[in-house]
Amino acid sequence: MKKFLDTSAEMQLTKWANTVVIIVFLSYFLVNLAAFLSVRHGKQAWDYASYATPLFWLCLATYAFSVMILTRWVYYCYKNISMIGKLQHGVKWAVAYFYIPALNLVYPGRVLEEIWYRLQIMNGVKPKGNSYINLWSYSYFISLFLILIMVIVNSPNYKVGLTRNMVCSGLIILSTWSLNKALKQLAFQEKKGYRNYNINFPEGDD
Questions:
Q1: Residues 81 and 65 sit within 8 Å (Cβ to Cβ)
Q2: pLDDT tens, position by position, 23-53
Q3: What dihedral angle (degrees, nearest 10) is formed by the CA atoms of 10, 136, 87, 184?
Q4: How far apart are CA 61 and CA 76, in angstroms?
Q5: CA 30/CA 187 separation, integer angstroms
């Protein structure tokens, strides 16, 4: 007997984690903006590092946690759909793509797109693209690349470094916001699709 996994808790937790990411990265953006304006107007630079450095690592920690929660939902949802019809990727690979360097720049967007298409088919709807998933995929790709640069490359100029930090944090805010929008649509299609297939989740299931 096929055992389907209840994804509702993971979906809700992912949305909450993403909201925290937006708040933390917005704080980081504002700290960089304040430092940039201070230098630009010729004022004495305040102790930017004492605020920015711990906040930067907090940003990375919350972002990593949100990805972990997201991939838990991806695993549950992808496994459920795979028991209804054949998918392009294996369930474990669908999760691994989020963590493997280089592959995590391209395949996460494809995985979410496939879930979106399959859920539409389950609901008897003609498959079409999702603009929020596309926006998340592109901004996610660019922001991951910029985070890598921020970690391993020292900026040659103070203002350039602050600008890079603001662009990166802005992109992450955009990608996380668009992901939450996409998740809202995915949750609706998922719930409707399970109902169409008479899939119920017993209390106590993970």
A1: no
A2: 999 999 998 888 888 876 665 555 676 777 8
A3: 40
A4: 23
A5: 32
Map tokens 């993403």 to a residue.
18
Among residues 77, 31, 71, the alpha carbon closest in space to that of 51 is found at 31
- 126-168: per-residue pLDDT in tens? 889 999 999 998 988 888 787 777 777 776 677 788 888 888 8
More confident residue, 201 or 39: 39
**What's the pTM value of the predicted model, to 2 decimals?**
0.85
CA-closest candidate to residue 48, choices 146, 168, 158: 158
In 3D, which of 135, 142, 146 has the Cα closest to residue 56? 146
- Give the span between the Cα atoms of 46 and 86, in whole angstroms: 57
**How far is residue 186's CA from residue 192's CA, in Å, rounded to a whole number?**
10
